[in-house]
Design goal:
Blueprint lengths: L5 H15 L4 H20 L15
Length: 59
């Protein structure tokens, strides 16, 4: 796993908690997950656009 041992991972996680705080970490994870989902969706292309209903307001 990238040459990281258990103690290095523990140290990195402790630094993240100290820098961002325990309450902010779930928000950061949620944001990263949403970004990854958006990126994957953009790679799929316009297939997702076909599921949207057509706009009746356009003339």
């Amino acid at each position: 796993m990238l040459g990281l041992g258990v103690w290095e991972i523990v140290l990195i996680l402790a630094l993240v908690v100290l820098i961002f705080g325990a309450k902010r970490i779930p928000q950061i994870g949620r944001g990263l997950g949403e970004g990854i989902r958006n990126f994957k969706g953009s790679l799929k292309g316009p297939d997702d656009d076909r599921t949207l209903p057509p706009d009746d307001d356009k003339a």
